[in-house]
Amino acid sequence: MSKKRVAIFGGTFDPPHLGHLILAEQIKNYFDLAEIIFMPAGKPPHKKNKDILPDQHRFKMLKLAIDENPKFSLSDWELKKDGYSYTANTLSEFIPQLDAEEVFFIIGADSLSEIFKWKDPKFLLAEGKFIVFNRPGYNLNEILKKEQYRPFINNIWTYQGLNIEISSSLIRKEIRNGNSIRYLTIDKIKKYIEKNNLYR
């Protein structure tokens, strides 16, 4: 029986940036995680009407981002699934395949505040474990004081440490405006975006 604890870090990663990597490394340290699995979403239901870069580009950029960190791994499980990417499906189908004693989902305070609009929220909160990080404009303590979260409070862990306010949308905007994205993401991703003429 494995004793390791791991976390799944999902998202569109469109593109991945230094904020993702710094946050993941800090959470790994803080919660003593053996591994963080980056899992790009295939078709996120909350972004139905938004243009998202094709899967292969997001997957390749994430691979470039995490390649040199032995504690980070990459899963294309959600990308290979048909239909929308629901965290409830990941919990019921993917997590049982893992060799781990404890598995967490890493989500932002914004996602936690919306989680009761997700598919099967009570199943998620009762059967899953969550590490929730700060997001600008959201107060984690205030969210968790709400009555609906109380039955699940033991499954929600909070990380209120380093808060890097870099976003994928900022990077896309800077590229469209013809500005440099140096220091917002790693050089390999910057070069990949330039080579493939993405986000223009």
Would you kindly provide a written description of the structure presented here, covering whatever features stand out?
- The protein is an alpha/beta fold and 200 residues long.
- It has one domain: Rossmann fold, CATH 3.40.50.
- It contains 9 helices and 6 strands.
- The chain has helices at 18-30, 55-66, 77-80, 87-94, 109-114, 121-127, 140-144, 168-176, 187-195, and strands spanning 5-11, 35-40, 72-74, 102-108, 130-133, 156-159.
- The chain has a 6-stranded parallel sheet.
What labels describe this entry?
200 residues; alpha/beta; Rossmann fold; 6 strands; globular
Contiguous runs where pLDDT drops below 50 for at least 5 residues: none
> What percent of residues are in strands?
15-25%
Work out the count of structural domains: 1
Largest sheet: 6 strands, parallel
Helix/strand structural class: alpha/beta
CATH superfamily: HUPs
Shape: globular
Order of helices and strands: EHEHEHHEHHEHEHH
Radius of gyration: 17 Å
Please report the number of helical segments.
9
The CATH C-level class name? Alpha Beta
Helix content: 25-40%
CATH topology: Rossmann fold
